[in-house]
Amino acid sequence: MRYDIVPRTLLAPLSSIQRELQTILNFFNPKSRYFNYEPLGKSEEATEFFSTVTRNALCVTSHIACSYMGCTNLLSDAVTSLVELSPYRPCGTYVFCTGNNKLVALKNPDAVLQLLFYSLQLSLEPEENIADIACRSLKEHLIYEAELQASLPAKDVVILDNLEKLPLSSDGVGDAGTKLIDAALNDLGLVSIRCYS
After folding, report:
1. How many structural domains are present in the chain?
2. Among 4, 105, 133, 168, which is least packed, fewest CB within 10 Å?
């Protein structure tokens, strides 16, 4: 699920979320009286947890992207010496549910890291606040299994290996495979940037 915060939790060092973690775990524990309890999902702890995880996801993804691009900005090195970054890096195959009974599979750990961050980018509705978003990010984790089970029979899986072979701009044209990948990325909230000459 696009907004599920749990897969991104490992991108935050434990020390940065330790205080809020027990509260959040009660939200996910079926034996807790706070299981899926909306006021807990909108609490200050949940909001702080969401903010901290997303902030750390930004730091990790930016740091990795900067190091791959050969960034020579001294400020980047200074910040990483002051900010504790999570040592976690994705491994194995990640399967993302788009919410439309489609699955997106990805093995490249660097691409997974970027997808974990960029698919969480929100388009805020005017009436939506950070507490609502934090609650939605927790609730989406609870429906992930049902969404996965609903998506498996369809066998509509988009495998995003060989990303370097994808065109930077599809401009709505291309073979069926490119269009399928384009649709899957759009379902994950990764709107394609079109280049026009």
Report:
1. 1
2. 168
The reply to whether 52 falls in a domain is yes
Q: Which domain holds residue 160?
A: 6-187
Q: Mind listing the pLDDT tens digit for each residue in 56-65?
A: 888 888 877 7
The dihedral sign for the CA sequence 107, 111, 114, 120? negative
Q: CA nearest 140: which of 54, 23, 27?
A: 27
| 195 part of a folded domain | no
Specify if 20 maps to a domain.
yes
Between these two residues, 118 and 174, which has the higher pLDDT value? 118
Cβ partners under 8 Å of residue 196, min gap 6: 171
Could you tell me which residues are beta bridge partners of residue 105?
95, 159
DSSP assignment letter at 64: H
Q: Which stretch of 127-131, 153-157, 169-173, 186-190 has the lowest confidence by average pLDDT? A: 169-173
d(C-alpha 80, C-alpha 26), whole Å = 32
Task: Provide the pLDDT confidence category of residue 194 given band limits of 50, 70 and 90.
Answer: very low
What lies within 8 Å, CB to CB, of 134 at 6+ separation is 5, 41, 42, 46, 47, 49, 50, 51
